[in-house]
Structures
1.
Amino acid sequence: MIPALLISLLAATPEPRTTGGAAAPAALPAGTNALYGFVGAPEVAVGYRQGFGVLELDGRASFNLFKVSFIGDVALKFPVYQRQGLRLAPLLSLGVEFNTGATYFDLTNFDFIGLRPRVGFLASYAFTETISGVAQLDLPVSVALTTRGFVVTPTVGVGAEFHLGGGFSLLLAGLVGFEATQEARNPTFYRAAWGARLGVGYRLF
C-alpha cells in the first residue's frame, strides 16, 4: 500500500520550474507557457510560447526596422537533450513575410510577399535559479512569391536571461552572421549581419 502511494505521488510530481520565458529555457516544459517581446535592431517582436513536453509551440509577430517588413511565423521546438541545467532543442519554423521594399537603410532591399521557412538550434543553461545563458544558431530563408528572389540570413547569437521576480525575466542578447540577397537576374549581394535584443518574458505558468 505504502510503496504504491509513493509511486503515485512521484508520478504526480510536476517538473521543477525553470527560469525564463523570453528565450530560456530552450524549450518550455509541458504545461507551461509564456508571453514575450523584445526591442532592438534590426527587429522588434512579440510572441507566445506553449510547452507540450515533446515539443514547444512558439508563435511570433515581428517587424524589421531596416527593411520595413512584417513577419509572422510559427515555430516548433523539440527538446532532444536535458541534463541538470542544460537544455538543447532544434527548431523548425514557417512564416509569411510582407516586405515594403524600403531602401532607406538597405539599398539591396526589394518589395515582395513570400514564405519564410527557418531552421535553427537552441541551447540554454541555468547557471543559477535566477540567471540562464542562451545560444542560438538561426537560418531563415525569405523566398519571394511575387517576384524572383530570396534573402538568406544565417546568424549565431548568445545572451543571458535574468529572473526579475514573479513571472518576469529580462533578456539581453546579440547576434552576428551574414546576409545573401538576390533579386531577379541581379547578382547575389553578400554582407555582414548583426542584431541586438532587449527583451522581457512573462511566465504565465
2.
Amino acid sequence: MKRFLTTLLSFILLISTTSFQTGDVLCDVKALKEKAKDAINPYKYDSSELTRIIYKKKESVTEVEVALFIGEKYRFAFVLEALPKAVEIQIYNKDKDSKNRKLLFSSKDGGIDRKEFHWEISKVRHVYVDYVIPPTETGTYSGCAVFMVGYK
C-alpha cells in the first residue's frame, strides 16, 4: 500500500508540474534584469518588478502601482522578450478604478511588437503601469515581463 501511494503521489506531481509548463516561455530573470539595467543607464537603479503574464481566452489587464518622489527624474525600462505574445504597456496617473485618469504613455505608439523600451517622467507622485494582455485562441499560457525604475 505504501508503495502504491508513493507511486501515485509521484505521478500526480509529475502531471501537475508538466501541465503548468505547457506553452510557457522560460523566464531568465537575471538576464532580463541585466538588459533592463542597461536600458536605465545613466540613471541609478531604484527598483524592479517581475510580472508574470498569464494569457487567457479574454483580454485582461494586470496593473502595478509605482510610488515616486516629486522632484526626481525617472526612467522606466521594460523588457518583454520572455513573452510569447506581445502585450501593450499603458502608464496612467491614476489606478484603473479611478475616473478621469490620464494616459501618460502607451507602448502602442512605438510599435507594439517591440521587446524593449524605456520612458522618462518627473513631477508625479504615483503612476500605474497596466499590462494589457491580449486573448489567446488556444488554452492558457504565460510568460514574464521585467520593469525597472531608475532615478537621477
3.
Amino acid sequence: MSVVLKRPIVPRLAWACAAGLAVAAAGGLTAGSDEQAETAFPVPKGLPEVPCPDDNPLSEGKIRLGKQLYFDPRLSRDETVSCATCHDPAKGWSNSDAVATGVGGKKGGRSAPTIINSAYSRFQFWDGRAASLEEQALGPIANPIEMAMNLDEVVERIKGVEGYRKQFEECFGEEGVTEENIARAIAAYERTILSGDAPFDRFKAGDKEALSEAAQRGMKIFFGKGQCSSCHTGPNFTDNSFHNVGVGMDRDEPDFGRETISSLGGDRGSFKTPTLREIARTAPYMHDGSLKTLEDVVEHYVKGGVENPFLDEAIFPLNLTDQEKQDLVTFLKEGLSSDSYPEHEAPELPK
C-alpha cells in the first residue's frame, strides 16, 4: 500500500554529505567545535562519497537524534513498532520474515528491504515511490498497516517529550519538531548505515588472499557467465533500476510493482534491484520474501526466472553446473560480507 504524504520532501542532492567527507575503513564520527556543524564521517573502503540533500547536512547531534527516533516505538499508533522492528540491525537491517508486520499484527504484502547503503539508492521502497530517504522515512509512519500514525499526531507526541524538544531545537533551531525535521533526522542517521570493506573490496585492492579459491571462481561467474552484474553493478551492486524477474507473476493476482507508481505497462511486475552488500544476512529474498536461501535465488535465475510477457530481457536460462552455482553462492556469502558490519544497538530514548 502506498501512502501519499501531505508535504513530500524531494530534496536536491549534493554529492557529498559534508564538506571534507572522510573516506576511511573504520572509526567514529568526527566532531568539530560546533556539535551541530556539518559532520564528516568515515565511508568504508569500496564505497563512494555519500549523496546528501543540500537542506539536510549531517551533524553529530542530528544523527544521534535520528538514531533515537529510528528505535523509538512511540512513533507508532500503539507504541509497539519502530523503524528497527522491520529493519533490525541484528537481522541484516531487515526482519528475517517474508513480509513486514505492523501494528496489531497487520502484515504487508512485501518484504522489508535492508537499510544498508540505502543512502546510495536513487529511489526508496521496492516500487521506488519515494525519491529520497527523507520522504521514505515518513511513509511507514503514516501507513495504516505499518505504524498507522497521522503525521500531525506524531509531531504532537514528539513535542510532548522534553528530551526530544531540546534536541530538535539544537538541531533545527526555532523550527523545532516538524514532520519534515523528523524525516530529516531519521534520514541523517540512515545515511550512516554503511557496509563496505568486504573481502571483495580487499581482493580488488590487491589482497589476493582476501577471497578463497571457491569465492574467486564464484566472482568470475558473477561478472561473467552468470550475468549477475547486468543488474547488480557498481560499488553498491545495484543499477538502481527496476526489473521484472518473474517473481510472483504466475499468481492469480500478481503484484504489479513499479507500474503502480509509473502507470507504464512496461513496468508491470518490476521491482528495484537491491544491493547485494551483506546479502547473506538478509534472507528471505525478493520483494515478497518467497525465496528462502541464496541457493534458491541462484536456481531462480539459472532457470530463467518465471516466464511472463513483461520478463526483463536480461533474464534468460543460464547453463551453470552445480559446482558453478555453489561457487557463485560462496562469492555472495563470503565476498560481500564485511567484518565491519554496522551492528548498532538501540540507544537510550529521551523522556
4.
Amino acid sequence: MPQPCECPDCGNPRALMHDCQHCGSQAIPILLGDTIEFNLKRGSPSAEEALDRLTHYLWRASDVGVKAILLIHGYGASGQGGKIKWAVHEALENNYFSDRVDEFYFGEDVAYGSDSYHVLLRRRPSLKTHLKLFKEGNAGMSVLLLGNNT
C-alpha cells in the first residue's frame, strides 16, 4: 500500500506516524489525499493499547488535515467480534473521540446501497473508491469522519 504522506523536507513517501525513513525528518508530513487507512490491529495489541494508538493517530491525522479514516480493527476469530473491535465500538458510541471524530460508521452497516453507504458518499465523495471494501458490509472495519476539516 502506498504511503499516505510525503516528507516536507526530502519529498519521499512517508507514513503519518513516523519520522521520515529517508532523511530522518520529524516535521509534520504532507498529506497526499483526504482519506487514509489505519490498521489498528497490526502487531496484535491489547484492546487498551489499540485505543491508545487510535487516540494518538487521530490527533496526528487531524493535525495534517485528514478528513476520513478507514479504520481496520478486525473482526476477531471468535465469530462474535474481537476485543479491539468492541473496544473501538464502545469508545465511539460513548463519544470518547468526540473531540476529533464527528461521525462514524461501523463496517457492517455500510454495505453497498445501504443508507449509510449513500450518506457517506454524499458527505465525502472521495470515499467512493474506498467503499468498495464494504460491498456486503465489513465488520472488521469502520469509517471515521473527522470533524475539524469541513
